[in-house]
Amino acid sequence: MYEPGRSTTGAEGAGSPGPSPALLLAAAVGMVALAVVGRLWQPTYNVSPLVAIAVCSGMLFARPAVAAVVPAVALAVSNRFLPGGGEYGSWAMAAVIYAAFTWPALLGPFVRSRRIVGPLGAALAGSLVFYLSTNLAHWWLGHDYPHTVAGLAECFVAALPFYRWMPVGDVVWTAALASALAPLAAATARRTAREAACSCRSSAGA
Length: 206
Known about the structure:
The chain is built from 10 helices and no strands. The protein has helices at 10-15, 21-40, 50-60, 64-79, 91-102, 108-113, 117-141, 149-163, 166-180, 182-205. Helix 5 (91-102) packs antiparallel against helix 7. It is elongated, with a radius of gyration of 19 Å.
C-alpha cells in the first residue's frame, strides 16, 4: 500500500527531482482511460474509480488547480461512453456532480502527509460528500420530493441502496490506484517537502 510520507534514504532521496512532466501526463491520461473502463464495467451502482482518480491526482500534482483538472476531464470523457452521454437534467445538477467528484483532488497535502490513512480517509470522505451533496441537490432542484425536512429525509433514505457499496468501491479503487502510482506520488511528496524547506530557509534568512 502506498505510503506518501516515506522518504528515500541516501543521496538519491535527498537530491532526486520530482516526477517528470511526461510521466505525470502519462499518469493523467492513464487515469482518464481507467475512468472510461471502470465506469463501463461497474459491478453495482456507484462503484467506479472516479473518487480514487481524484484522490490520486491530488497526490501526484502539487498544484491544486492542476490536480482538479484530471478528475473533471475523466468524468467528462467517460460520460461520452455511457448511455445518455452524462446528461444530468440541469447545469446546476451537473455542477454539483462535477464538484463532488473533483474536490478530493484538493486534499493532496493531507493525503501526502498521512501515509495509508490519508488516501483511504480521503476516499471515504469523497463517498460521503458525494452522497450528501448530490442528494441534497436532487431534493432541492427536483420535484420528486416535497421541499420539507421530511422530504429531504425521504430523499436521503431512498438513496441509501445506491450509496451502500460506494465507500467500499472507493476504498478498494483508491488502495489499488495509489499503490500503482506510489513511485510518482513519493517523488511529488519529496519535491513538495523540499520546496517547503527551501521556503522556510528563505523566510528565516530574510
